[in-house]
Predict the structure.
Amino acid sequence: MTMRRAALIVLAWNQWPVTRRCLDSLLATQPFVAEVIVVDNGSVDETPRELAGYADRVRIVTLPENLGFVRGMNAGIAAADADADVVLLNNDLVFTQADWLDRLRDAAYADPAIGIVGCRLLGPEAEGRVYHVGGFIEPDDLWGQQTESGAVERDVAQYPDTRTVQCIAFALAYLRRDCIARAGVLDPAFHSYFEDTDYCLRAAGLGIATVVAGAVTLRHDQHGSTRDDGGFRERLWQASKATFSARWRERLSAAQRGTLLWQGPTRMPHAHAHLARLLVRRLDARGLRACHRSTAPEIADGEDYRLDLAMRRRWDHPADAALVCAPAPAFAQAQGRVRIGFGLSDWTRVPDDWARAANRLDLLLVPDAFQRDAFVGAGVTTPIEIRPVGVDRAYCHPDVPAPREADGRFVFLAALDDRARDDPGALVDAFRAAFAHDDVRLLAWVRPGRDAHAIEAVLRQHAGGDARIRVVAGWNFPWHQRAQLLAGADALVAVRRDGGWNPLPGDALACGLDLVATDFGSAAPLARAHGHAVAAKRAVDPATGLEWAAPDRDALIQALRDAFARRADAATRRARGLAFGSAHDIEADADALAARIGDLAGLAPPAPAPRRHRPVDAVQSPSGQLVVLGMHRSGTSGVAGLLARMGAHVGPEADLLVGPDNPKGHYESGRLHMACVRRLEAAGGDWRDPPLAAPAAAVDAFRREIGALVAEFDAHRPWLIKEPRLCLLARELLPVLTRPVFVHVVRDPLAVAASLVARDGMRADEAMALWERYTRDAFAASRGWPRVLVDYDALLADPLATTRRLHADLVALGVEGIALPADAIVRDWIEPNPARPRVAAQLAATPRQRALQVAIATRRILDDDADPASIAAEGGR
């Protein structure tokens, strides 16, 4: 037996140059604790001969004929170590990222329910095009898509996070071994194609999640093994589609709870079109079969598959619900049993005809209080609900790559599309008045539209040849690249006369920019909270006679100066962008909106989700690897010594630490201890001040150190490792452990804190907070895995009974090689102390800490369906 390995299975069929490129790039990454298995799927070219030259670096499995992708990969899985995780790899991959496997492991073990992991895959184009970021399949055409929009987009660092998806392409698929134990191997009912989506859907039925690791980007020359095949690939695809359709079409259709008709533009006006692009596909993915009809003539964007699909769909009139996202007069066009409008006003009060149209609705949605008041003030009596619209963090985040000023000059960006509302001349005049030096730039982007030429002329006239002012006109770009324009600037200037909702301020803040906006309308709360609000006085829109605002010139000048003076460094900019995006996430808003529409339309609720997968559900016997977790001063040394007396190996005696605070011994490897110390130091912390995050390189170095120790210990199963810092680091260990059992050691937190106060001179509240952090992290990391709990106070009170209970728990889990020590041995090791330890009077627990303590005492903390973080939070409600 050895520590957990990953079996990297490369399937090859002819096309030797493609396979050679794959293997050379793969082996150059030197994947940690991995075995490369090449399955030669009956190649008839030079592949068998050339593969022999790699025999010292890979294991070769030769099949007598081409058995297809599914049977070929299954042969590789069968050849892999029975404990190894499996990574399925196409031979047309190119490994362009050295730490790809480590980052896949991070994603695979981030949550016990995760069993399948994919990554970002780029095509062969030199400029970088994203072919895969996790996809979906719809029941209409069963035309599976590898991206959310269905489009092949330029790489602008979209989808950087790990996120749950319906399915991934098995060009690369990391399969956790416990997932395979439950879901099985690929279904041989498929030859090639659709087997990956089938596997992901089958796994989802078992509560196994599929995710895409946004931290991994590789290159995939799609269909490299089947190009120039005379129609062979098309025949395979059609045959597999028929098999998939028979199995899944009806079930996929049943997941659609009703029809939502989205009525509104996808191009102009910009705000309404933006909402369509953000929400139509998200509502469709949440079980509302989305159909689309524009409220005005327009040319649709054929590159957005999800919108195109919605436009092509038919529905029975009236739809279950119609949502009109267009200027308010279009509300009258609503064609649903339930009529919903999304209202956006430029003025403090909407026109009377807008109000009349809104009163024909069943519900009016608005993004903020300004919009609500504009409709209420006009006499709208229809129920109005505020539904915030967040940012798409997959595209708008601080790490978007964008060209920056080579000389580091500060860049203000303004997006202009309406001459009356934007007042471009006033903007340029204020900029020139604010700055006499050359350390700033104003980038004025004139958005395509009816006023574009007039705006450009005004900008150039007022700029007067000032080289610091750049006008970009007559230029548009794909919607998915919008964040690149923002990321090239330092501050967005959104100083308009109207109060209409505009997506750019939120997107800019999520990218880490500063914001200068009028203290009026929908942008005002964002400017006040996150930027610079420009004072304005009320004015009248000459076109409508309605009230809007006139930004104050002096206030604008001062706001521009303030933004420049308070410019943030890259780290601050990144941190504030991530924080804003997390607090204003469109996914949470889409969840709430879908639920509200479903309730209003009386749709059936979504089908109950299956219980989330747990590795313990895989019914695999533990391997004999015991990980003891517990806070400093919690009694972990006592319990580790007890396990050693049951027969668990603890390593060479010369490596075991002995200290003055525990002369009997810590039963703790000195090498493990130093590895943990180095890991925390590499992230800028220590045991008293544990960091919240760590550089990937620090995690990798720690894993390699611990991996070497595990490999040594594995010759002596059962064994144990113990170090209090493992409470913080246990999740990072999971990829190198094989079916471990976690032994949680707990003690009265007030006693723990009192000991830390006395030994380390900590403040009482600091000691209690540290106990909480260690305890929560430890139980969160072990959630879903086999685990037992030992109460150290109970062990001291009754050593024999508690030892028998621990032994029985381990035996019940299937741990082999341990024996119950004789009573005399237990008494000699654990000295009975039935008296409750005395605790200093000044020590006290917060409500959250008391809730966590109760969860431990009742053993509810071991409930795999309850997140320890949420249990701890109960006391603060």
About this structure: The longest strand covers residues 209-220.
